[in-house]
Amino acid sequence: MKYPYRPILHIPKTKTEKIFDIIGIGCFLVSILYIVLQWNHLPDQIPGHFNGKGEVDRWGSKYELFILPVIGLFILLLNTAFEKAPHMHNYPKRLNESNVEAFYLNSRKMLNAMKNLCMVFFAYLNFEMVQIGLKQKESLDPWFIPAFIVIVFIPLAIGIYKQSKIK
């Protein structure tokens, strides 16, 4: 077969996906609002980068606070577009007419969870950068980076496991 079996299906979002979107996007938007509300109270220099322990290792202009929201918006838009095109995702050769909907739904749910977890972590990081800039904290919590890595890969692991169970 020259082209793999990839029909375009329109599978409605599940309730879980909608709830994840509300939580992820909501947290992200609230963090941007928080930056805007705190803007006049922020000093000219805010944390620009953190080392592996969560300590500030570079300070930068407070305008750098807009970098994470721009990156987050890019991630949000790109992943939302990919969620709408599960036929473009990568699947094993056993994809066929009888299991295509299960594969598409599993892949889209995995992508949705990872997208929204990233939005929550970006929101948390925005909040923390403002808090450190306002001298209310000195560094990120030491658990932040390991937690981010582990938590973002949980949906991936679950999705791969569920995919292996699709007949």
UniProtKB/TrEMBL annotation:
Pfam families: DUF1648 (PF07853)
InterPro entries assigned to the protein according to its UniProt record, in alphabetical order: DUF1648
Domain of life of the source: Bacteria
Residue ranges of domain DUF1648 in the record: 28-72
Record bears the keyword Membrane: yes
Keyword tags: Membrane, Transmembrane, Transmembrane helix
Membrane-spanning residues: 20-37, 65-82, 117-134, 140-161
Keyword Cytoplasm: no
Protein name listed in UniProt: DUF1648 domain-containing protein
Naturally occurring in which organism (per UniProt): Ureibacillus suwonensis
